Amino acid sequence: YETFYEDAFFEDKIYNEHFKTVFQSVLKVSPAQLKEVLTQLTNRIGKIPEGERTERQALVLELNEQYPGDVGILTAMFLNLVSLEPGEGIVLAANEPHAYLAGECVECMATSDNVIRAGLTPKFKDVPTLIDNLTYNNVKPTILRPEAVGAMRTYNPGPDFDEFEVRDIRVPAGATHDGDPIEGGTIMLIFEGEATCVVGSTEDLELIPDESEKGMYANTSFEMKKGEVYFVGANVGYSMENTGSGELRVFLATCNSLVYSR
After folding, report:
1. Where is the signal peptide (predicted)?
2. Structure pTM?
3. 140 in helix, strand or coil?
4. DSSP strand pairing (248-254 vs 186-192)
């Protein structure tokens, strides 16, 4: 089974139904059956010399150490195993199961009323609800590579994800980055470094219809440092001066420009 599905991607509805049946059976397995299967699986993989194990086999052992006896360990045999290089992103459609295994990433999630979990987490799990909501589509994952313009790299998921896009801004020490006004609000995460930021030029303020909001952005200057998060209102530009000794890295989450072209 492991070998057969390693690189097999089926978009046919018949295969999707078979996949759905098997995946649901795994998630609904009894505690006794799960313990027996995991014991057999980890023992078998453990007998394989470390240098000869596949990436997926090694992952099973790693997950079993982190979450002993968890049903999520078995999902490693079903889901795509994706390794992202620095600067790459991935598109996760609604109701697609996923788990972050290692490393750091910035996640931007569209409006959602809940997050449903089934395994590999200490948080509340709701297997029946998850089973009912999954898509069971067998497709290759979509890897995002940014469009770079100056200091800014933009991750645009495309027309099917017009609720958001992510921008990665990197400013060398001593340099300044000027951000143009965006028609919607923006969440700004200071990922690395420190800076002085000025928001709201005179021209920007003319675009703000609400008089009570103008004062919030009237050439306001403030210091930013790693780990802080800010909100920038619609139609407000900004200027960031890197005041640290290293690179300033800031992530922005905002609506896709397609939203405003309708």
Report:
1. none
2. 0.79
3. coil
4. antiparallel
Domains of the chain, by residue range, sit at 2-142, 146-261
Distant-in-sequence, close-in-space partners of 45: CB < 8 Å, separation ≥ 6: 53, 57, 60, 61
Q: Tokens 């027309």 sit at which residue?
A: 159
Tell me which long-range contacts 257-260 makes (C-beta under 8 A, separation of at least 24): 257/165, 257/183, 258/159, 258/162, 259/162, 259/163, 259/184, 260/183, 260/184
For residue 158, what are the contacts with CB-CB under 8 A and spacing of at least 6?
A: 91
Active-site option among 44, 53, 56, 117: 117
Contacts with 112 (C-beta within 8 Å, 6 or more apart), sequence order = 94
Write the class of the CATH domain 2-142. Answer: mainly alpha
Distance between CA atoms of 10 and 24, rounded to whole angstroms?
A: 17
The encoded tokens of residue 8 equal 């097999």
Query: Distance between CA 250 and CA 238 in Å, rounded?
Result: 13
- Length of the chain, please? 262
**C-alpha atoms less than 13 angstroms from C-alpha of 22 in its C-beta half-sphere:** 13
- Residue 62 sits at φ, ψ, to 5 deg, of -65, -45
Instruction: Return left, alpha or beta for 235; rule: phi > 0 is left, psi -120 to 50 is alpha, else beta.
Output: left
In 3D space, the residue among 89, 119, 84, 125 whose CA is nearest the CA of residue 107 turns out to be 89
Q: Are 26 and 125 in contact (CB under 8 A)?
A: no
Q: What is the pLDDT of residues 244-262, one digit of tens each?
A: 999 999 999 988 777 777 6
Active site residue 117: yes
Domains 2-142 and 146-261 share a fold: no
Mind listing the pLDDT tens digit for each residue in 190-224? 999 999 998 865 455 555 555 545 445 556 788 99
